[in-house]
Specification:
With 91 residues, the chain is an all-alpha fold. It has three helices and no strands.
């Protein structure tokens, strides 16, 4: 197992982590009364994240933690893929 494999495994874990957070966000949004379409989640995920963010700000005054569990792994995966591309071009 080389460095390329390790980077892709970490990027894959980040993507799965983000998708899991998105599923939890859509569950919270649907429990609040807003209808969440499970099959349209790929098209409407920014809407669900913003609705969840508004809901948690109204309840607690802060942004809910699932927003960060959705956004940060996506950025991490993007950075890891860019590093992977740069390393593969350097060799």
């Amino acid at each position: 197992m080389n460095i390329y494999d390790i980077l892709m495994i970490i990027a894959f874990v980040c993507i799965v982590w983000s998708i899991t957070a998105l599923m939890l966000i859509s569950g919270k949004v649907s429990k609040s009364g807003t209808r969440a379409h499970f099959f349209l989640i790929t098209l409407l995920f920014f809407r669900y994240v913003s609705v969840y963010e508004d809901l948690t700000r109204k309840e607690t005054g802060k942004t809910g933690p699932l927003v960060y569990h959705f956004i940060i792994p996506l950025w991490m995966a993007l950075v890891i893929v860019i590093i992977w591309i740069l390393l593969s071009l350097a060799v």
